[in-house]
Every structure is written in structure tokens, then in C-alpha cells.
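Quick one, C-alpha cells below. Sequence please?
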């Protein structure tokens, strides 16, 4: 597997927002629960890392993101190609709102994960590698697997 830097909780802890950076891609997972601003700022800083050109954002359940956090993410991701995967109507609303703020973003349902992965324009990682990294992020974050999410 490609080397990646995972920002996930220690054993026994839960974070509603986790992510991984690999090559020119940042993958983020948002689950249910309030996300503290310091965690969100760490994610935004990682998203602005030189060389990160695209973002795959996935949501499980009904995540809660404040308007300040949405704005910070738009600022951090404004020059990147963003692909979002979720089943929640609330999360799809967030994608729409963030798109209105000027982000190059397209949303997909979990059942269309393979189509979504084709949209991710990493110049260094192939879709099957990205899918493996996403599965590892889900596992480390104690989230359902891709198989479970696509049922």
C-alpha cells in the first residue's frame, strides 16, 4: 500500500472527523458528532500542504459541520478538485452549499463509489489504490466498510 499519514484517534477514542494524506490526495471521513474547531483547523492545514491537489471527502450518517468550518474548508480546498461521497440528504446539502461558495465539487452516493473514485484526479494514485486507502481510513476510524456502505 502507498505510504499515507493518517490522522485518526488512538485506540478506544472516537473522532467524528478523520483523514489521511497520501501523495497528492487528502481523504477525509466525517461521521456523526460535533467536530471541534482545533481538529477542523488541523484538517485544513493538512489540506493546504504543498503538493496536495485533490480531495476525496466521505460522510457516514448525518455529520454536523458549522458554517465557520464550511467556510474554512472552502478556503483550504478552493484550488483543489473535490469529490464527495455520502448517502445523507443533510450531507448532500452541505456539498451543494460548499459548491455555491466556489468549490470545484461533485457529490456521489455510496453505491457509486467506483464512479466517484474515477473522478479523483490524482496524478500519483490509481483508483484501486485510493479505494484501499479509503478502506483503511474507515477501518482505523471504526466506521463501516465500503462493502457495508454500498448495500
Amino acid at each position: 500500500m502507498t505510504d499515507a499519514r493518517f490522522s485518526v484517534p488512538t485506540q478506544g477514542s472516537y473522532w467524528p472527523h478523520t483523514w489521511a494524506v497520501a501523495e497528492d490526495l487528502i481523504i477525509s471521513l466525517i461521521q456523526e458528532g460535533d467536530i471541534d474547531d482545533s481538529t477542523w483547523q488541523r484538517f485544513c492545514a493538512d489540506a493546504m500542504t504543498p503538493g496536495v491537489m485533490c480531495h476525496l471527502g466521505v460522510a457516514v450518517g448525518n455529520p454536523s459541520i458549522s458554517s465557520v468550518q464550511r467556510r474554512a474548508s472552502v478556503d483550504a480546498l478552493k484550488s483543489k478538485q473535490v469529490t464527495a461521497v455520502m448517502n445523507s440528504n443533510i450531507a448532500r446539502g452541505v456539498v451543494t452549499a460548499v459548491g455555491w461558495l466556489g468549490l470545484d465539487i461533485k457529490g456521489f452516493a455510496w453505491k457509486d463509489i467506483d464512479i466517484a473514485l474515477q473522478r479523483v484526479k490524482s496524478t500519483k494514485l490509481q483508483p484501486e489504490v485510493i479505494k484501499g486507502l479509503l478502506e483503511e481510513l474507515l477501518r482505523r476510524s471504526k466506521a463501516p466498510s465500503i462493502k457495508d456502505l454500498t448495500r
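The mean pLDDT is 92. The first strand starts at residue 5 and ends at 7.
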